[in-house]
Each structure stands twice: as C-alpha cells, then as structure tokens.
Amino acid sequence: MNDKSENKTKKVVDKHYLSGKEVRAIAKANAMEMRRLEKEKNRKKHESEYIAEMRDANNILEIENLHSYFFTDQGVVKAVNGVSFDIPLNSTVGVVGESGCGKSVTSMSVMRLLQGPTGQIVEGSIRFKAYDFKRDENGNYIPVYELDENGNVIYEPVLDENGAPKLDKSGNPMTQPKQKRDANGLGVYEKEEKIFDIAKMPIKQMYRLRGRQMSMVFQEPMTSLNPIFTIGEQLDEVTLLHVPGSTKAMAKEHSINMLNLVGIAMPERVYKSYPHELSGGMRQRVMIAMALAGEPRLIIADEPTTALDVTIQAQILSLFNDLKKRINGSILLITHDLGVIAEMADYVVVMYAGRIIEKGTASEIFHKPCHPYTQGLQKSKPTMQSNEDKLFNIPGNVPNPINMPDHCYFKERCGKCLAKCSGDYPEMVQVSPTHFVACHLYAEENNNGKR
Ligand SMILES: Nc1ncnc2c1ncn2[C@@H]1O[C@H](COP(=O)(O)OP(=O)(O)O)[C@@H](O)[C@H]1O
Ligand code: SF4
Ligand SMILES: [Mg+2]
Questions:
Q1: pLDDT tens digit string along 380-409?
Q2: Residue 439 in contact with ligand 2 by CB distance below 6 A
Q3: N or C: which end of the chain has fewer CB within 10 A?
Q4: Is residue 127 classed as helix, strand or coil in its secondary structure?
Q5: 0.70 cut: is pTM over it?
Q6: Quick check: is 168 in a domain?
Q7: Residue 229 sits in which domain range?
C-alpha cells in the first residue's frame, strides 16, 4: 500500500462520522447477514440438530464462546464477544460489570429474547440441562399413574361435573387410571433429562424452556406486569400454560402458594389486586412468584433489586437465598453492584466491554482479585471502614463498542500496563483450579512464580 492510500484508509477509521455511502455499505452488509441469521433461527430442524452434551454433568448451564451482536447502521456492536462460563447445579453465579458491558445481552441470549433482526446470536453454544416432558408417539404427554403395593395401576371412578359417578351404556360406573398428583395437586407426567443447545434451537421451540425450565426476573416489575390484569390472572396463566392438565382451581391454589412462598402477607388479597395497587417491593415479590410458578430449575435475575430502596433490597436478596435452597435450582444473578454479588453469589464472572476479564469463586474475586479492573471495582465500593471523602473512580471510559481495539480493552484505563499490552488481546490464564483472568500480568513469562 502506498503512503497516499494508507492515509486515505486512516482518515476513514479516525473520523467520528460516517458518510452516506459508508452507511449504505454497512446497511447492505448487515441486511445480508441478518437475513441469513433470521432464516437459520426460523428454520425447521430435527431435534438431533440442537441436542448437545454437557462438558460437566454437575452444570445446569454451560455458555461457550458466545457472540451476540447488534447490526446497526453505524456498524456491528459486539455486545457479547466470546463469553464462556458455567452455572453449576444448585449454585448462584453473579455476573458483574459496569453499565453497557453486555450483562443483559448475555441473559437475553440465554432466554433467546434478543430483539431480531438487529440483535442476533452469531456464534457459540448455550447448553442447558432440561427436564423435558416425555411424549408418546402421538406427541402427547405421558401421565404417571398411582400403583398399588403389587405394582398394578389403581383405577378411580370417572365423575361428572356435579361430582357424581358417570355410568357407561350398560349402567356400570366408568373408571380411569388414577394419575399421580404433586404437593400442589397438579398432575405428574413422565419427564426425561435432555441437554439443549439453546443457541441452535429454533426460536419456536423455546416455549419448551421459557417459564417452565428457566425464567427471568427483570429490573422494573411495572414494565413486566400487565396493568389491566389482576396479579391472580397473570399468575394463573403461567400455571395454565406450563403445567399440563392444570385446571383454573388448581392454578389458583398454586398461585396463592407461590405468593405465600415469596413472603406476601394476605396472598388472597394480593391475588385479586392490580399491579398499581402494590408497592415496588411487593411487585418485585410478585414477579419472583411468577418466575417460580412454572417450577424452573434456573432463574435469571437481571438487576432484580436496582429499582428498590435499600431495606427492600435486603429483603428480596434474602428471599432469593432462601428460594435457591427450596427450589433446588440455580440462579444467574446480574448486577452492577458488587455488594449484591457479595451477599448472594457462589461464583462471580466479571465482564468488561463484552468479554469476561476475570471469573472465580466469590471468595477468590473478593479476597484475591487479579485483574486491574476487578481491583478497581473493589476499591470503588464504599465500606464502613474507609474514611476517604471521595470514592475511588476508575479513570477513563469503555472503548467504542463498534470499533474495539485488538489489544486489551482496558489498556487506556490501566495503571499497570506492560509493553506487551499494546499487542494481542490477553488470553485467559488459570491462576487456581477455579480462578481465571485475562491479563498479561498473569501470563507465564511475566509471572516468575510471584503470582
Ligand atoms: N438494541 C440494541 N441496539 C444496539 N446496541 C445495543 C442494543 N441493546 C444493547 N446494545 C449495546 O450492547 C451493549 C451491552 O448492553 P447491555 O447488555 O444492555 O449492558 P449491561 O451490562 O448494562 O446490561 C451496550 O454497548 C449497548 O449499547
Ligand atoms: S493486559 Fe495489560 S492493559 Fe490489560 S489489564 Fe492487564 S496489565 Fe492492564
Ligand atoms: Mg443491563
């Protein structure tokens, strides 16, 4: 390339606006890519195309090399750019990082709720261990029946709407096999364990997982609750939709149980209320009840306490801690607040500009943070002991998400830069069996055994 043309290219990269021609070229390239990805998302697939295997049987979710992009007219926003982490069974994993680092896009990718066609998962796997209902050859769920001590199916009389036994043509009482019921009175069906790769699943199949297997609690309950339906109607709908064979009466009983479980006093009254009649804390409890109604094994909570004041925040967090034990499931907790993570998480994932820069157990991240960014986050957290007037502030800004540099994204803000930091993006280095960090300071050749 001669000097003149090199200058020309440099000009295009450096300037802060795009010409009409450039915008059109970007839009054309985006349109092609979005069309391809949308087609793939809606393509009919045989289940074998999205059945996967877990790397570790103790995990409920494994995210591997996830890339989720937004195709905008200014360029491609790599909101999630190669994220990998696991959620072990019965654990809480906290994802932390400042605003805009890709936390919500990660959780929306897991639920497959990215707004297409601009928002797309372009690469990676999201493996989820689901307990799916088994189906017979006609596609119907298979009920589990009560057995007597000899292993024979127990039969019960068929009743009409008045509760009287129904008779057949010859006048004999009709009978049917007696289906097993769970503690909430809901019919039990055969289930089987299946591992789905959510990233490859056709979007239409996601109804099998959302609400029933995994559910989400959002930051602002008022935008997630429908103002024109009562709490009861909205809660019942979850049960009616996700629990086969459930009737209105069963759904109501289940909804009231759920409201009780999330610590709502007078659940019968709240059941009949509209969202606007409740306080913020109550609404968030209702949202949690709703997330629990389908009895999911994974709850994704995206900034669940950010809109609440501090005392209510503490109550909701202790509710989550309590629930995790009761539902025998896992929680993916997303927040920008390290205090919330400290209270809740077993494992912590630290994100920066769409990538994971450090991950480990909560104790490793809090007591031995390695990455200069994580160390900065710790320093910027207010503590009872500190008598500083001003809180520590990490200088500088996150780089522009459309034009990410090739080197470490934190370089411009880092006080510990090495010459190497202007080179390639740092690889993930393992510093303990559970602790990983992406920073050149920890690469073998800089380490000299001093870690
Ligand atoms: N619909 C969208 N269109 C374009 N960019 C988006 C969209 N939604 C999110 N982004 C970008 O993706 C990045 C990650 O956003 P997000 O995951 O919401 O951050 P947070 O960590 O605060 O939850 C940000 O740079 C944001 O601007
Ligand atoms: S790789 Fe270099 S610039 Fe990036 S955080 Fe580590 S020391 Fe700082
Ligand atoms: Mg967010």
A1: 776 666 566 666 677 777 777 788 888 999
A2: yes
A3: N
A4: strand
A5: yes
A6: no
A7: 225-295
